[in-house]
Amino acid sequence: MGKSAKARVGRPAAKDAGEVDARILSAATDMFLVRGYDGTTCEAVAAAAGASKATLYARYSGKPDLFAAVIRANVEAALVPSTDMPDDLPLHERLTRAGRAVISHAMAPVPLELMRLFIAEAPRQRDLIREADALGRRAGIRRIAEAIAGPDRDDPAAIARAEPAASRFIDLAFVPHQMRALLGDEAADLEIALQDRIAVAIDALEAAGLIPKRPVGASN
Question: Which residues form a coiled coil (predicted)?
Answer without folding.
Answer: none
